[in-house]
């Protein structure tokens, strides 16, 4: 039997409250669980006691092979009960395909405008040069 330490939603509409439970992976999110080992109240301010954990029972279930979900692992890491490995996703900040195309088009338009401006600056200078030569003759 595979075990997960995960969140089970409680509370009413627009007022979330979560129980931290040990459950079989096949049971539904808010369904049957084996044991309640903590709680999380996200509506409280961040400096308040938002997370409560039963450290002994968590250590017991981790010893029996229960795998915490990512959110629960964050709580356990903050409490010093488990180590959450640092994640590195350098591609997360890269813009999407369409955004990259828009940036390329804008850059191309800017280069075209700069080239036209350079040509416009060259054209009057060339037009004045033959006039100056004609006047000197």
TrEMBL record:
Annotated region (Disordered), positions in chain: 82-137
One CC-aspect GO term: small ribosomal subunit
A GO MF label: structural constituent of ribosome
Superkingdom, taxonomy of origin: Bacteria
Alphabetic keyword roster: Ribonucleoprotein, Ribosomal protein
Keyword Nucleus among record annotations: no
Keyword Ribosomal protein on entry: yes
Gene Ontology BP term (one): translation
Positions with biased composition (Low complexity): 115-137
Sequence similarity: Belongs to the bacterial ribosomal protein bS16 family.
UniProt xrefs under HAMAP family: Ribosomal_bS16
PANTHER family linked: 30S RIBOSOMAL PROTEIN S16, SMALL RIBOSOMAL SUBUNIT PROTEIN BS16M
Protein's recorded name: Small ribosomal subunit protein bS16
């Amino acid at each position: 039997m595979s075990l997960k330490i995960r969140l089970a939603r409680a509370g009413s509409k627009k007022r979330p409250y979560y129980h931290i439970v040990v459950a079989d992976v096949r049971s539904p999110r808010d369904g049957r669980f084996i044991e309640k080992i903590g709680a999380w109240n996200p509506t409280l301010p961040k400096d308040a006691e938002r997370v409560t954990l039963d450290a002994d029972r968590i250590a017991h279930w981790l010893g029996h092979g229960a795998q915490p979900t990512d959110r629960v692992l964050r709580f356990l890491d903050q409490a010093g009960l488990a180590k959450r490995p640092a994640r590195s996703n350098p591609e997360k900040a890269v813009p999407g395909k369409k955004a990259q195309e828009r940036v390329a088009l804008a850059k191309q338009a800017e280069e075209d405008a700069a080239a036209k401006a350079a040509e416009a600056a060259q054209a009057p200078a060339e037009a004045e040069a033959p006039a100056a030569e004609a006047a000197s003759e």
